Amino acid sequence: MSIALTVTNYVGIVAFAVSGSIKAIRKGMDLLGIVVLGFTTALGGGIISNIILGIHPPINLTYLPYPLTAISASLATFIFYKAFSNAGKPLMYADAVGLGAFSASGASLAYSVSHNPLLVVLVGSITAVGGGVIRDLLSNEVPVILTREFYASAAILGSLVYFLLRFIGVNDASAALASMTVTIILRFMALRLKWELPRRVINEGIAKA
Asked: Is the preceding omega at residue 58 within 30 degrees of 0, hence cis?
């Protein structure tokens, strides 16, 4: 894994752990709940992806720097909640960096196991957004990626970019860097331009009639 991808992976772990911990605090959870939600948000997607690929035990549970970073970020959020909760935009952009890093690393790992395009895109996307889905489900909410924002779509496209570049012969490091860059740019643009996927609006009055 390149140095850039390693650094951004840690940025993503911290950003995702903070977002999960903030959600837990706002839901009135205790310290254990805060750490659990922070941990699963940061590392849950990677764990699911490893299970899909048959990697046991998952890397996120055996490579100690990853869980220690997630737990530390969760505890820091508990202690310095006001500071983190007021850092809305910086956290959103850090989250976008993590989204790019996670989708690229997930796609890279999947490609090393199989060159199946569906598997590469699926695993890349799950690595990036799976933790957020677990966070929302544990918070008794419909996952955000299914209801609003151009978020999972950026991870899907970034993972697809990785596969296409590897398919035409680009090496792993360059493909991962390009994939990460595309995902981050798409997410940044979505934040600035407020992109959303189309949805079907149902008129309740007509539906009941």
From this structure: no
